[in-house]
């Protein structure tokens, strides 16, 4: 059709620019314009899909731009009113309703209402649509253990709360379970930004029955905030306070001796984890990190391979810090007069006051939790109350300022990953598909750099899969550790044999929670995963079924 031929010319032209322009953003701007006009020209979705498969070759090594291209094109089609909605199709002589969800920004959903893949569903035409299967083939269902419930008489690992003094005035809070499991593998959990060890209590209660488990609070977060003001107040008593009727620490005139070099940076947290493993756990560990904790886990493993048995990344943030690292870029770092030390300079205090009042508002915290949890039926009351409790600490505002103004680490995420790969550190990836912050494409980048790393995509699940679907994460984590501990004699979760490690496997994991049956879809991406097969698995069903 004429529209498609015009699109073909436009995309070929854009590919020429892709290979000739010096900066990717220029290419993206050009291609965005081309795709917009190609959408106006009315190209067929099926033709466009076939054409993308034809021209999309990974030989350039840069897959972010083609990914953006395809996502952008799908979004343009959606905005034109061609969003994939319910249509009728004939399948095995039975009329069924095929529902498509092509939204590129993932919507929050209630898994008690919707089970199955977000790419395509086939629901029986009968009222209720209780039988959910893939549009092309039936997805195997696997029953997994539910979380232990003490009220039902289940064996729950007790959690103990402790404090460890790393340095004078540097007191670290941590929780532990399973200490009686002598000889079992040790597992250390690292939390994300703004939370603490409490975010892993569902892991400690369950996995603590089989392993020795620890979860710590980073310095400056959770219950590892300072026990006294890191700054000295002015002689006239004129304090900088966010609230004139409350005591706020960190806004004095000069720092206390013990806090002279205190910066809540990723380098500090890396060292904190190192000494915690050496002095408290006293042996190499499996380390699990979510979001910021994932970055720290990888960074720590890259710098201390002798202390790590394996790393599991749960929607790990691929970057942290905005200011340059003084060791990597000494000249550039001198441009910035302040890099997270105490006390806060007067030039940033008003900014921090406004920002902190906004971000610590319970309504803001509730909205953030609503964003990062894909399943709104998940109970987050305990998480919410613990976050609120932390924001009320007198050092919370200044600690927050130190964190966001702290310099970057000595290694980037990619550099840390490369070093772990060179050291032969086992890595496992578990990513919630509906994460609005760390999109699945970031996990895909890690998978492409470390092809042997098992990659489990969990849906529905957002930024915190360990708290949203702990049954699934605990099941996968157990299986991965068993696989490593057995030197591969125990197969990885979801796999039936060693030959499956090269293949992509999709299964529905079913479990019971509070008397209701839940189903979560998990995709395992094998060693031969390519960017294009990943894109195809997500988008091709949409285009294929539209032609029926």
Can you walk through the features of this model?
By secondary structure, the protein is of the alpha/beta class. It folds into 2 domains: 2-83, no CATH class; 151-224 and 264-502, Rossmann fold (3-Layer(aba) Sandwich), CATH 3.40.50. It has 17 helices and 17 strands. It has helices at 2-20, 24-40, 45-55, 64-82, 201-207, 266-281, 292-303, 330-333, 346-359, 362-372, 381-391, 396-405, 413-423, 440-449, 465-468, 470-485, 531-546; strands at residues 87-91, 94-100, 120-124, 132-133, 141-143, 160-167, 170-177, 186-190, 212-216, 231-232, 254-255, 285-290, 308-314, 427-432, 455-459, 505-513, 516-525. The strands form 3 sheets. It has an 11-stranded mixed beta sheet, with helices on both faces. Strands 1-2-3-4 form a 4-stranded antiparallel beta sheet, covered by helices on one side. It has a two-stranded antiparallel sheet with strand order 10-11. Helix 7 links the parallel strand 12 and strand 13 (308-314). Helix 2 (24-40) runs parallel beside helix 4 (64-82) and helix 7 packs across helix 13. The radius of gyration is 25 Å and the shape is globular. It starts with a helix and ends with a helix.
